Amino acid sequence: MSTLTPSRTLGRSGLNVTPICLGTMTFGQQVDEATAHRILDRSLELGINFLDAAEMYPVPPSAERYGDTERILGSWFASRPGARQKVVLASKVAGPVRGYEWIRNASPDLKTSDILKACDDSLKRLRTDVIDLYQIHWPVRNVPMFGAIYFDPAREKPGSSIHEQLDALGRLVREGKVRAIGLSNETPFGVAEFVRVAEQHGLPHIATVQNPYCLVNRSVENGLDEVMYRHGVSLLAYSPLAFGLLTGKYDKAGLTGGASGRLAEFESMRKQRWGRPEALAAARRYNALAREHGLSPTQMALAFCYTKWQVTSTIIGVTSVAQLEEDVAAWGTVLSPELLEAIDRIRWEMRDPAQ
Question: Keywords, A to Z (predicted)?
């Protein structure tokens, strides 16, 4: 395993992070507080300096556990003097929350007051004075996301403008509550428009976009990567193991055959893009390819993300210290040109089934 160092810069922000980021959305649901603290301790020992959270975590979201992930991080900071200064901390404000009555009364919009209050609430739960990277979790406007693949003009609706959202984020930066800003689950148009509006009005330039990127969903490469490259925006790749599909644990028994993991344990997760039969079929092909080349499926899937030029930092989500160590051990794995060609052949045949 190569040594992890905070050698990657998030966009133009000046924030330097490790190429592996610890995602925390399992904390409070699949992972209890004591285990979460052990995972966080070990992540520091392994050299990871980048943590990602969100106001709506853990997932699957619920009224009972809303905010618990940030609270667990806050309790860890409080019990580990100096830990906060060792990490770059990211969190997110939820976009329009139709269906989640416990978040802003299921508001269909994200107004200035919503962003400001959400940030203040996150700061309290996290027990910190500043969030290093504050992201909009998903767009306010009508876009295809979370498994939808077609833009539908008939779904247009009123909502706060990109200018209003940027202005609110800029206010948080000016007040010292946030150091840099980012987006998540965004489109090429969205990234380009946030950059244009920021330049037009002298507002903060977005540093990052956090989108899914893995062997069964390479939609980032369908134009978003060019936009990020030309505008100096970094990709934070989430779900590199496709909710466990690319670990191989579902290969034999399928999603309901008794394996442990979010897709097996939560029916709501199986209804999303990762639970599609086509996604599992493609994952089985990639997993078999990894084994043919003497790698574990996890090794190959993570190495694919770790070594792609598009990716600044890969967000790993774990439920145990052992999983954390396995994911970090994959850093430094080199995929041969022949293996990369074979990966591309499968993608050409099966495309992006978990898009």
Answer: Oxidoreductase
pLDDT tens for 300-335 read 999 999 999 999 999 999 999 999 999 999 999 999
Helix then strand count (H, E) for the chain reads 12, 10
Torsion, Cα 269 273 277 280, to 10 degrees, reads -80
Question: How far is it, in rounded angstroms, from Cα 27 to Cα 68?
Answer: 7
Tell me the one-letter amino acid at 97. V
R_g (Cα) of the chain, nearest Å: 19
Are 232 and 205 in contact by the 8 Å Cβ rule? The answer is yes
Catalytic residue from among 57, 134, 213, 238: 57
CB neighbourhood size of 214 (10 A) = 26
- φ and ψ of 295, to 5 deg: -120, 155
β-pairing verdict for 8-9 and 16-17: antiparallel
Distance, CA of 139 to CA of 123 (rounded, Å): 22
pLDDT in tens, 78-117: 999 999 999 999 999 999 987 899 999 999 999 999 999 9
Domains of the chain with bracketed CATH: 8-243+305-334 (3.20.20.100)
- Residue 178: which of 219, 218, 206, 198 has the closest Cα? 206
- Peptide bond connecting 60 to the previous residue in cis, omega within 30 degrees of 0: yes
DSSP string for residues in 115-138: HHHHHHHHHHHHT-S-EEEEEESS
Active site residue 57: yes
Q: Alpha carbon of 36 to those of 42, 69, 77, 176, 285: distances in Å?
A: 10, 9, 12, 28, 33
Please count the residues of the chain: 355
- Give the global pTM: 0.97
